[in-house]
């Protein structure tokens, strides 16, 4: 084994094997010039970039900084397919709305989890993390979360729900309820009450999920969504609320919803407006 000796004041200060020294230098250079490979990540961090007006949405394949969110970074081929699916979905929305949501980045993971529990996606600030297999419903759901946090003003939403209804919370976060509310929640779950007033059981967990789910189902179901409205006056009010919330001209415009849902302006009368 070759040894390098470094003199110091006429004495040998320290001795390092040549091979070990060269290995250390290579490792340092790898971190400096190839940080993604050194961390075991994709060589290509940016898989797709879409320009919407002056706004850019980037598919960025880096593991989320939030340690509660876990998952495996999928191969490039899977990311490309997921990215195409994502951009096709948001292409169905008016550009002004997408620009105003506040989204900047999308990351795809295999088997994503939040606090150890499986998820289809999650919105974190200006970033959406999605399962690589997520479809339109999850895409619209998470995109609305970003919009709701950046642009949404939904002070009157809870007034739409029946007076005895209590949001249930979910496996991701526990609802903070009084003893009386806990009793109501238990009774409501046991009786199956109010199920027609929500698009899904997950929509019953809290008002943020309720709005995101309602928006998502309105987008995916289109004219079929009106079947839900016919069963529930509460659902009709929620539909109209989402239309008013997103229907400003600098967002989606109500004309988009008239065409997408097959309704007219008269159908929106006597409806609550978000503040």
What does this structure look like?
Helix 5 packs across helix 8. The protein starts with a strand and ends in a 14-residue tail after the last helix. The protein is of the alpha+beta class. The strands form two sheets. Strands 3, 4, 5, 6, 7, 8 and 9 form a seven-stranded mixed β-sheet that branches. A two-stranded antiparallel ribbon has the order 1-2. It is built from eleven helices and nine strands. It has two domains: 105 residues; 112 residues, no CATH class. It is globular, with a radius of gyration of 25 Å. 29% of the residues are buried.
N-C termini distance: 76 Å
Rg of Cα set: 25 Å
Number of strands: 9
Q: What proportion of the residues is helical, as a percent range? A: 40-55%
Could you say how many structural domains there are in total? 2
Strand content: 15-25%
Biggest sheet character: 7 strands, mixed
Mean of all residue-level pLDDT scores: 82
The SS-based structural class is: alpha+beta
Report the principal-axis shape.
globular
Low-confidence stretches: 1-6, 30-43
Q: How many alpha or pi helices?
A: 11
Q: What is the element string, with H for helices and E for strands?
A: EEHHEEEHHEEEEHHHHHHH
């Amino acid at each position: 084994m070759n040894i390098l000796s470094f003199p110091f004041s006429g004495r040998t200060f320290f001795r390092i094997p040549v091979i070990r020294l060269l290995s250390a230098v290579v490792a340092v250079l790898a971190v400096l010039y190839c940080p993604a490979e050194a961390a075991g990540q994709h060589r290509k961090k940016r898989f797709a970039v879409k320009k919407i007006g002056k706004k850019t949405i980037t598919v960025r394949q880096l593991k989320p900084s939030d340690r509660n969110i876990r998952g495996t970074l999928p191969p490039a081929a899977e990311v490309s397919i997921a990215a195409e699916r994502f951009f096709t979905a948001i292409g169905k929305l008016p550009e002004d709305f997408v620009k105003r949501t506040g989204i900047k980045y999308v990351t795809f993971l295999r088997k994503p989890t939040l606090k150890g529990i499986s998820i289809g996606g999650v919105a974190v600030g200006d970033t959406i993390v999605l399962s690589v297999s997520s479809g339109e419903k999850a895409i619209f759901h998470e995109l609305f979360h970003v919009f709701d946090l950046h642009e949404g003003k939904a002070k009157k939403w809870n007034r739409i729900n029946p007076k005895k209804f209590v949001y249930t919370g979910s496996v991701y976060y526990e609802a903070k309820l009084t003893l009386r509310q806990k009793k109501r929640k238990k009774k409501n779950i046991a009786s199956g009450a109010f199920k027609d007033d929500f698009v899904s059981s997950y929509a019953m967990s809290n008002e943020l999920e309720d709005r995101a789910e309602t928006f998502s189902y309105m987008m995916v179901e289109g004219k079929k969504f009106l079947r839900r409205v016919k069963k529930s006056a509460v659902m009709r009010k929620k539909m109209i609320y989402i239309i008013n919330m997103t229907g400003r001209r600098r967002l989606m415009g109500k004309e988009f919803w008239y065409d997408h849902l097959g309704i007219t302006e008269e159908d929106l009368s006597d409806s609550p407006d978000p503040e």
